[in-house]
Amino acid sequence: MGDRDRIMRTTARFLETENQGVMQLSQSLIFPCLSLQRGQTGPVVKETLMAGFRSFAAAATVATAVSAVSMPAMAEQNCGVGLSGNSPVAVVVKVPTPWYAPKFFVTSKMRDTIPQYQAIAGLNFKAFSFAKSDGHYGGIYLWRDLDAARAWFTPQWFERVKQERGAAANVRVVEVVLALDNTPGGTPADANSSAVATMVEIPVPAGVSKERMAQGFAAAVPGFQKVPGLLRKYFITTTDGKFGGIYIWKDEASANAWFTPAWRDRVLKEYGQPASLEWFDTPILLPGQDAGGAWVKGANSS
């Protein structure tokens, strides 16, 4: 069976299960598929689908806008409540991926926004991300300080995301006690990255102060500078009593080589609580205006 036949059979099955309104929106995807000739494969099929999805996404904006209007008002998110305005922070953003948009299409739209993020004051680094658990897209940001993050994540930003995407953004802010970049000169931009990120959180043991954790983080830096495949690590604490790290790895194999069953057993034995891990694909890595900040350890090493 050729690519054209497979596409048409799959699309037909999809349409049979959807209501008339969705069928009308889907025509912007079907018509480009109909133009495929037998024997066209690979890039031709992908490019034709891209054209269809662009048109389809534009049409579906109407549907998502309607759903956004019918949603309850989004509760205002406290961006870094309890943290000092001059504290470095990491922000993890997740937005539900529209059902009509495949990953390659969302990634292409992410690339279109690179110039915008390069111009943001106070942004040290952004890893554009897809959460492996649910496919939600967004980014893992490292900011010079909380004030810079707040200047970006305004109430207007939250409202714009809700209106344009048809869903509210989930935004988490964590304090970065220490940031490490293992690439001399800083991790470079990569718009076709095979990198992955992991976010580790562990409950803080009773009686352990923030100062003691900071000392432990600093003492651990030489060891993490030697971990194969580790590009960056942000040592973090959370306002709900946890500590851990956000790791950016050059590839998934490097991350799996670190997060072994033995690692989990050691964490449980040492801290008395299991670690939680969240995984992300990060297809785009982007240094920001603050990428040369001396507060990131190792970034300016030669």
Terminal residue distance: 56 Å
CATH architecture of the largest domain: 2-Layer Sandwich
Along the chain, the helix and strand elements come as HHHEHHEEHHEEHEEHHEE
Radius of gyration: 22 Å
Q: Can you summarize the main beta sheet?
A: 8 strands, antiparallel, barrel
What's the total helix number? 10
CA-based shape: globular
CATH topology of the largest domain: Alpha-Beta Plaits
How much strand?
15-25%
Helix content: 40-55%
- CATH classification, class level of the largest domain: Alpha Beta
Q: Looking across the biggest beta sheet, what order are the strands in?
A: 1-3-2-8-5-7-6-4
What's the SSE blueprint?
Elements: H1 3-16, H2 20-34, H3 43-70, E1 89-95, H4 103-112, H5 114-118, E2 123-131, E3 137-143, H6 146-152, H7 155-165, E4 170-181, E5 196-203, H8 210-224, E6 230-237, E7 242-249, H9 252-258, H10 261-271, E8 276-287, E9 296-297
Parallel strand pairs: 4-9
Antiparallel strand pairs: 1-3, 1-4, 2-3, 2-8, 4-6, 5-7, 5-8, 6-7
Helix pairs in contact: 1-2, 2-3, 3-7
Give an overview in words.
- With 302 residues, the chain is α+β, with helices and mostly antiparallel strands.
- It has 2 domains: 3-70, no CATH class; 89-297, Alpha-Beta Plaits.
- Helices cover 41% and strands 24% of the residues.
- The chain is built from 10 helices and 9 strands.
- It has an 8-stranded antiparallel barrel with strand order 1-3-2-8-5-7-6-4, surrounded by 4 helices.
- Helix 2 packs antiparallel against helix 3 and helix 3 (43-70) crosses helix 7 (155-165).
